[in-house]
Design brief:
The protein is mainly α. The protein contains 7 helices and no strands. Helix 4 packs antiparallel against helix 5. The longest helix is centred in the C-terminal third of the chain and has 41 residues, at about 155-194. The relative contact order is 0.11.
Length: about 190
């Protein structure tokens, strides 16, 4: 293995992404065992590593192409696993879970298509970070306090706000995707004409 590849694989931000992914089965087990306090701690630890890996990558110029794949992958897996676990306690989670699947499928396919064209991954935007941060907060709240009944406003409202932020991020990413594809098409047509 080349030194550059090893350095990229084991950079601090990427290690924090691996940690986030490894926390997922731990959360699922804790949640199934009704260890809500520890489950909430795992969610908060996951959120903290998400914030810290981005700060370290930017501040110490440790951004890598692998990190641009790992970070959103860890986010997507976290959102799917945590919301999937909470589906069984809160029926309203089906709405959020469905939006997450649609959003992440679109972003995954769009990201692959763009990568094939420009050979680079784009970093996440503020609206994606906002929806992810709010998601973490709502999930930690639901796991830690286990509010009942599931149809109460203090369950439905936070979940619907999180869903709205996910939809907002989806629309903004879709607009950005169309803009980038349009710019690439325009650049390609200009190159052909000259």
């Amino acid at each position: 293995m080349r030194a550059e590849t090893r350095k990229e694989l084991f950079s601090v931000p990427n290690i924090l992404c691996y940690v986030r992914i490894l926390l997922l089965p731990i959360f699922a087990v804790l949640y199934c065992l009704k260890q809500d306090i520890f489950g909430a701690v795992v969610i908060l630890l996951s959120a903290a590593t998400d914030v810290v890996d981005g700060i370290i990558a930017r501040k110490f110029h440790m951004e890598t192409e692998l990190g641009k794949i790992l970070d959103p992958l860890a986010d997507k897996l976290t959102q799917a696993v945590v919301s999937g676990c909470l589906l069984f306690r809160y029926p309203v989670m089906w709405i959020l879970f469905s939006v997450i699947i649609i959003k992440e499928s679109f972003q995954g396919i769009g990201g692959i298509l763009l990568y094939r064209k420009i050979k680079s991954m784009r970093s996440s935007e503020w609206f994606g970070k906002l929806s992810t941060a709010f998601f973490y907060a709502v999930m930690a709240y639901l796991v830690l306090f286990s509010p009942e009944p599931s149809a109460a406003w203090y369950v439905i409202v936070p979940v619907l706000i999180s869903t709205g932020l996910m939809l907002f991020a989806l629309v903004r990413y879709a607009i950005r995707f169309v803009q980038v594809v349009g710019a690439l098409k325009t650049a390609g047509e200009s190159a052909v004409k000259t």
